Amino acid sequence: MRIKTLLFIILALTIYPLYAQETTDHYIEVIGTSEIEIVPDKIHYIIEIREYFEEEFDGKSKPEEYHTKVPLSQIEQGLRKNLAEAGIAQDAIRTQEIGDYWRKQGQDFLVSKQFDITLTDFKQIDEIIKRINTKGINTMRIGELENKDILAYHQKGKIEALKAAQRKAAYLVEALGKKLGGVIRIVEGDNTSGLPFAQSNVSNVMSSNAASFDSFRTIKKNYSVLVRFEITD
């Protein structure tokens, strides 16, 4: 019993200094944030085409009277012609997926096909919209926005977030008559629960109106870092 008691006391004395050090250290922990706005040099424009019935547009036929289906191949041919007129090269057009559309009762399946069109300028979208025949177009939207220097922008965003954390910690500590010491710990936002790191650069715009894209013409990235600084007298 004496040996067990002695062993417990030794263990307690060993653990206590570690615990005491953790609870008596003077530090401040703050979150620094930054936002970087990037002009994309590659734009993915997504267009989905779908078979349709000519009677849908005559203004008088009911759905049960639809019978003249416009095939997907004809719609695709028209789309590619419109894209060529807008100055889009054929090698910039990639088929993304194809499948059957949901069928209404008593009607055939309508086949759909999606295209990923790589653009370098938002003005190209305006040109596409001017020329495109909306019959057979199911959706049009901006997909992923890219920039070849995106990694450099990531680095800049993290540095700015770190500087913001330092500024915040400095004025808070100085308000208490103390001085800001060195950095104890840095945790990036993507490694810390609840901290935003980098927003997605994929838009969810679905429209045939060029003006609807105005607020989506840049890539916006948000960065956060959690930083612990030492407090000195």
Note the total helix count. Answer: 4
Low-confidence stretches: 1-24, 191-212
Structural class, please? alpha+beta
What share of residues is helical?
25-40%
What letter string, H or E per element, gives the SSE order?
HEEEEHEEHEHEE
What's the average pLDDT?
A: 80
What do you see in this structure?
The protein has helices at residues 2-24, 72-85, 123-131, 150-174, and strands at 27-38, 42-50, 52-53, 69-70, 93-101, 110-119, 137-146, 179-188, 219-232. The strands form three sheets. The chain has a four-stranded antiparallel β-sheet with strand order 5-6-2-7. A hairpin with an 8-residue loop joins β5 and β6. The chain has 233 residues and is an alpha+beta fold. The longest helix has 25 residues, at 150-174. Helix content is 30%, strand content 33%.
Brief sketch in words of this structure:
With 233 residues, the chain is of the alpha+beta class. The chain has helices spanning 2-24, 72-85, 123-131, 150-174, and strands at residues 27-38, 42-50, 52-53, 69-70, 93-101, 110-119, 137-146, 179-188, 219-232.
Fold topology:
Blueprint: H1 2-24, E1 27-38, E2 42-50, E3 52-53, E4 69-70, H2 72-85, E5 93-101, E6 110-119, H3 123-131, E7 137-146, H4 150-174, E8 179-188, E9 219-232
Antiparallel strand pairs: 1-9, 2-6, 2-7, 3-4, 5-6, 8-9
List keywords for this structure.
single chain, 233 residues, four-stranded antiparallel beta sheet, 9 strands, disordered N terminus
